[in-house]
């Protein structure tokens, strides 16, 4: 959230729209796409692609056809076609990258039902749009009170007005199916607008609302992540993470999407790695695996009778012992293998000054007594001269 319109000024106060991340301009890092073809001109005779990508409140994006051949650029506010009336959004992408985005999202380029752009938004359109946006928080609070009074088991998470102010879309989450017919009647009577209810999942709710994750950065789902893949506890087990729901769950209450980011690398490393439930048969007794470090290729084993004493073995040593166990042979003990893995501690710090101690200034200094020079007595001849 460091766009030119939302960043702070010299006095520390927000400048521009002063919304700090919820502004209408496309500078708040909400699913933005870098147009790397913006400085390249089209070949001779090729017409520019007639579709553009428009973003509305939060992370809702739609594709629209530029039938009027308007000169549009990223950041322009446009009036677009809606089911009834018109909507107002911000252009986020133009040119050939829109064709790539439509193919990626499986939207047919030749689809004639794609809505169109009416015009660039006038100042009157923007004023009505901003006025409706200012009413959203108040209406959301009032609609929650109505839902609570009707004892509906649902959570109204967000409200989005249409650009002309004729309709409002209420996004909600619920565990089961909710009968909100009476809720729509009460809200339409209280607000005097057409109501549309849209149920979303918990991940989509976090995507729309945004926030800061435990890593200190903005949520991936609200900044760049568009496809929500299923995340299971097996992803945490493969990465040897503690199955703590408080640490593994995101703000949506589900498992964090980032658990899948490094999963493929762990699975590839585990292909030639001994299983975590392997048992080593020795003459001293049966040994169980207590811990494994995939990247250091190290495993820790302990005997059944001595679970508190761990022995460090390398991956190759464990595979060698397992191969011997398959043939019916037993090794003498794990200590013989673990003795080869004892690494000498290397000093990572060397005193470049020499033998000087860091506490040399803490020692009290010995005060040297200065010897006073004794004055020689003057001779009698000098007194007689005076």
Q: How would you explain this protein's 3D organization?
A:
The protein is 25% helix and 18% strand. The protein has 386 residues and is of the alpha+beta class. Among the domains are: 51-121, no CATH class; 127-205, GMP Synthetase, Chain A, domain 3, CATH 3.30.300; 229-271, no CATH class; 279-341, no CATH class. It has a five-stranded antiparallel beta sheet. Strands 9-10-11-12 form a four-stranded antiparallel beta sheet.
Quick tags:
386 residues, alpha+beta, 5-stranded antiparallel beta sheet, 12 strands, 18% strand, PSP1 C-terminal domain-containing protein
Summed up:
The protein is an alpha+beta fold and 386 residues long. It contains eleven helices and twelve strands. Among the domains are: 51-121, no CATH class; 127-205, GMP Synthetase, Chain A, domain 3; 229-271, no CATH class; 279-341, no CATH class.
């Amino acid at each position: 959230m460091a766009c030119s319109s939302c960043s702070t000024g010299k006095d520390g106060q927000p400048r521009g729209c002063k919304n700090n991340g919820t502004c209408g301009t496309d500078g708040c890092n909400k699913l933005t796409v870098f147009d790397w073809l913006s400085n390249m001109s089209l070949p001779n005779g090729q017409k520019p692609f007639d579709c553009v990508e428009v973003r509305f409140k939060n992370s809702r994006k739609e594709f629209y056809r530029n039938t009027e051949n308007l000169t549009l650029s990223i950041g322009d506010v446009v009036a677009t076609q809606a089911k009834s009336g018109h909507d107002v959004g911000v252009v986020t992408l133009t040119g050939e990258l829109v064709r790539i985005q439509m193919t990626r999202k499986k939207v047919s380029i030749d689809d004639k039902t794609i809505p169109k752009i009416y015009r660039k938004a006038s100042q009157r359109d923007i004023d009505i749009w901003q006025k409706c946006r200012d009413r959203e928080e108040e209406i959301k609070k009032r609609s929650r009170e109505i839902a609570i009074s009707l004892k509906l088991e649902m959570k109204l998470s967000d409200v989005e007005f249409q650009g002309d102010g004729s309709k409002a879309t209420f996004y909600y989450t619920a565990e089961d199916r909710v009968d909100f017919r009476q809720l729509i009647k009460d809200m339409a009577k209280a607000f005097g607008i057409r109501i549309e209810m849209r149920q979303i999942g918990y991940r989509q709710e976090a995507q729309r609302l945004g926030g800061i994750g435990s890593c200190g950065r903005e949520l991936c789902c609200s900044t760049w992540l568009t496809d929500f893949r299923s995340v299971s506890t097996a992803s945490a087990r493969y990465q040897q993470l503690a199955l703590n729901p408080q640490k593994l769950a995101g703000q949506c209450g589900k498992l964090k999407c980032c658990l899948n980011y490094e999963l493929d690398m762990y699975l590839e490393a585990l292909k030639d790695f001994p299983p975590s439930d392997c048992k080593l048969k020795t003459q001293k007794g049966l040994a169980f695996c207590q811990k494994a470090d995939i990247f250091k290729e190290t495993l820790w084993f302990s005997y059944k009778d001595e679970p508190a004493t761990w022995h460090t073995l390398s991956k190759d040593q464990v595979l060698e012992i397992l191969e011997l166990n398959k043939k019916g042979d037993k090794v003498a003990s794990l200590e013989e293998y673990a003795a080869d893995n004892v690494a000498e501690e290397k000093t990572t710090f060397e005193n470049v000054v020499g033998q000087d101690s860091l506490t040399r200034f803490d020692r009290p200094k010995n005060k040297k007594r200065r010897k006073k020079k004794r004055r020689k007595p003057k001779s009698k001849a000098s007194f007689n001269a005076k």
